[in-house]
């Protein structure tokens, strides 16, 4: 194992930034100067940033380092896709304490590079610093879109259909499973973790993907969603963002909300109603968007997209319809709130 102090900051940067592939014409200059240079010609540029702090956003006792690197990139790409834009470049800044070795930081970068290769995004720079205790990773993603395609949270109109990609609640179920097994391990290290049969929810938590396929689908079907947001804090909270920004209300139907079988099974094991994972769990990185009724047929039989409700006028409020018709007001809990229950 190599200590970081042996290598020094510049040695570390050299090691981390070797073997970087550049995929995009818009990257004029990547790593190696005082600043990167980009050229987007006649496209609009979108930019987004996320900070991940050890102990707040991730726990290294159950998240493998490579997965952490991969996921740190994915959460940013998801934000770019949520604008109906294409991510092209990222910068990565890290602060690390001396408890981390070169090998462990390289593990994180393996995950970062894998995400870059998978999504054809260029790593064009960053910053490296020491920290007193934990680890901090800050990633910024830059992307491009045609002016007329950029999709905001604010465009939903009365009678638009509310759609989600994939299924919801899985990442939170995966987190709960990992936490349960960690508690068991702490109380008795002899007991092996029982993770069998839960590959899907573990994957949703540890190795999420960003929905580039849905963005491509919009292009193919010639659809421009009227509004869009990515689901990082649970369906309830994201829906309320759309309602607030679009000055509208909404009705969603509990029986329409897509939940995977494993998510159901694990929620039942914990004696929690599965839909609470979808509404208040976090980190699904699916897309929530609205389309006009005229586009209904294009999505009607698409297995990757589920229509879960519709937009109403603002005075009607935001409600979840249960079964045959009782209504519950949608409240933003955010997944951090659920976590402490
Ligand atoms: P400066 O002193 O101008 O901040 P640095 O020595 O920090 O320059 O960085 C040199 C080059 O390496 C720059 O292109 C920078 O973007 C890149 N870089 C620094 N840290 C990282 C990192 N953790 N990951 C990727 N690139 C990095
Ligand atoms: Mg620097």
What do you see in this structure?
The chain has 341 residues and is of the alpha+beta class. The protein folds into two domains: 4-145, 60s Ribosomal Protein L30, Chain: A (2-Layer Sandwich); 161-329, PurM-like C-terminal domain (Phosphoribosyl-aminoimidazole Synthetase, Chain A, domain 2, Alpha-Beta Complex). The chain is 36% helix and 25% strand. The chain contains eleven helices and 13 strands. The strands form three sheets. The protein has a seven-stranded mixed sheet with strand order 8-10-7-11-9-12-13, with helices on both faces. Strands 3-6-4-5 form a four-stranded mixed sheet. Helix 3 (102-119) links the parallel strand 4 (86-96) and strand 5 (122-130). It is globular and about 65 Å long. Bound molecules: adenosine-5'-diphosphate (ADP) and magnesium ion.
Compile the SSE list and pairings.
Layout: H1 4-17, E1 27-29, E2 37-38, E3 44-53, H2 65-81, E4 86-96, H3 102-119, E5 122-130, E6 136-145, E7 161-165, H4 170-187, H5 199-206, H6 212-221, E8 227-231, H7 235-246, E9 248-253, H8 261-269, H9 274-280, E10 286-291, H10 296-299, E11 305-313, E12 318-322, E13 326-329, H11 334-339
Parallel strand pairs: 4-5, 9-12
Antiparallel strand pairs: 1-2, 3-6, 4-6, 7-10, 7-11, 8-10, 9-11, 12-13
Helix pairs in contact: 1-3, 2-3, 4-5, 4-8
Bound molecules: adenosine-5'-diphosphate and magnesium ion.
The first-level CATH class name of the largest domain: Alpha Beta
Count of individual helical segments = 11
Q: On the 0-100 scale, what is the average pLDDT?
A: 93
> What summary fits the major beta sheet?
7 strands, mixed
């Amino acid at each position: 194992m190599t200590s970081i102090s042996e290598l020094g900051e510049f040695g570390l940067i050299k090691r981390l930034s070797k073997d970087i592939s550049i995929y995009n014409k818009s990257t004029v200059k990547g790593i190696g100067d005082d600043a990167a240079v980009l050229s987007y010609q006649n496209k609009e540029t979108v930019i987004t940033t996320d900070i991940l702090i050890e102990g707040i956003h991730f726990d290294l006792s159950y998240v493998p380092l490579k997965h952490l690197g991969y996921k740190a990139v994915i959460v940013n790409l998801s934000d770019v896709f949520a604008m109906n834009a294409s991510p092209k470049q990222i910068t990565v800044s890290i602060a690390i304490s001396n408890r981390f070795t070169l090998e462990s930081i390289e593990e994180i970068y393996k995950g970062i590079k894998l995400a870059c290769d998978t999504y054809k995004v260029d790593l064009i720079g960053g910053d490296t610093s020491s920290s007193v205790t934990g680890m901090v990773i800050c990633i910024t993603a830059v992307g491009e879109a045609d002016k007329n395609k950029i999709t905001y949270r604010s465009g939903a109109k009365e009678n638009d259909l509310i759609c989600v990609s994939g299924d919801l609640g899985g990442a939170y179920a995966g987190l709960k499973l990992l936490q349960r097994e960690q508690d068991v391990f702490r109380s008795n290290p002899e007991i092996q973790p029982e993770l069998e049969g839960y590959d899907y929810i573990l994957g949703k938590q540890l190795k999420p993907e960003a929905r580039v396929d849905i963005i491509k689908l919009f292009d193919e079907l010639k659809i421009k969603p009227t509004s869009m947001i990515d689901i990082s804090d649970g369906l309830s909270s994201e829906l309320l963002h759309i309602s607030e920004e679009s000055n509208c209300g909404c009705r969603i139907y509990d029986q329409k909300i897509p939940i995977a079988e494993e998510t159901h099974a694990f929620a039942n094991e914990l004696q929690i109603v599965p839909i609470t994972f979808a509404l208040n769990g976090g980190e699904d990185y699916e897309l929530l968007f609205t389309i006009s009724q005229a586009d209904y047929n294009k999505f009607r039989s698409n297995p990757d997209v589920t229509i879960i409700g519709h937009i109403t006028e603002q005075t009607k409020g935001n409600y979840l319809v249960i079964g045959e018709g009782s209504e519950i007001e949608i409240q933003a809990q955010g997944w951090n709130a659920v976590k402490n229950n």
